[in-house]
Amino acid sequence: MTKNSTSSTGSRWTGMVPVDDTALAVTDTGGPGIPVVYLNGQFATQGYWRRVIAELGAGWRHITYDERARGRSKRSADYSFEAAVRDVDAVLAARGVDRALLVGWSYGACVAAHWAGRNPERALGAVLVDGAFPYDWLDEAMEQRIRKLFRRLSWFMPLLRPTGLAPRMTAEQQADSNIELGRISRERELGPVLDGITVPVRYVVASGTSFGSRGDEQERIRTSLDAVTARNPHIKISAKVAANHGALLRKDFRAIAETVREVAALSRGEAP
Question: Does 151 reside within a domain?
């Protein structure tokens, strides 16, 4: 592990964390505050969280990282969802963090939900930002649509990679990852995960469409939360914001930060 600081809880640290056949680019603000781990959208980078982090301020310990082949992280032979969940453990272990509050957006919300469900003694709680909706949106026609979309985008992805705005993955790998997300998001798969969560979980839900969706598809997917919150008292919707899926980290960062504060208070047994 490379680093520019000798303390895992002191001053700001930026470096590479080796895991499996790759290395993840990690930033840790350090300090004694509650550790908050931010889990990115499927092909996003840690920089997307900068407004949320600035809004919360220096009283928290903010830990961000780029997923495999995203941002400054290295390529891997394994881009599976299970690898993404394992990487949370790798980052926490490398930074010496035993318990953390997770904040995940989109794909990262699914990662956060699974990790919180598997690690109730380590998860202080989770904020799920417009993701982790148990809904059967993937069928054969959708799978073909996804593959066609990423093939169509493949010609200019290499132009974006030097900027960090596109993953260093092939079009097929990106499509496979998106299709896997559809499979793990099915009600019979994700529903039991959410039902089993015993720590405070709060959703921030966007409005309108997401990349690749059509018409009211995304709004119909979001309605699946009604059954989730009815079954599990630990899970609630804290905010429904005006921004769409791709813009809410930029436009509604205050609502996300306020929800982080709410979950932190609940984890301490306080009224939010």
Answer: no
The confidence band for 9, taking pLDDT boundaries of 50, 70 and 90, is low
pLDDT over 80 at 140, yes or no: yes
> Which tokens hold the place of 121?
């003694």
Show the domain range for 100.
13-134+187-267
How many Å apart are CA 100 and CA 83, to the nearest integer?
19
Burial of 214 (0-12, 13-18, 19+ CB in 10 A): exposed
H/E element, 264: helix 253-267
Dist. CA 264–CA 272, nearest whole Å: 8
Measured distance CA(50)–CA(47) in Å, rounded: 6
Q: Is residue 27 part of a domain?
A: yes
99-139 per-position pLDDT tens digit: 999 999 999 999 999 999 999 999 999 999 999 999 999 99
Sign of CA dihedral 183, 23, 70, 38: positive
- Total structural domains in the chain? 1
Is residue 5 assigned to a domain? no
Confidence label for 210 from pLDDT (cuts 50, 70 and 90)? low
* Cα 153 from Cα 171, distance rounded (Å): 8
Whether pLDDT at 5 is above 50 = no
Instruction: Tell me whether residue 76 is in a domain.
Output: yes
List the beta bridge partners of residue 202: 127, 236
Sequence-distant (≥ 6) Cβ neighbours of residue 206 within 8 angstroms: 129, 130, 218, 241, 243, 244, 245, 247, 248, 252
Sheet holding 35-39, edge to edge: 13-19, 22-28, 61-65, 35-39, 100-105, 123-129, 201-205, 235-240
For the domain that residue 92 is a member of, what is the CATH number?
Answer: 3.40.50.1820
Query: Which residues have CB under 8 Å from 226's CB, separation 6+?
Result: none
Given a cut of 90, whether residue 88 has pLDDT beyond it is: yes
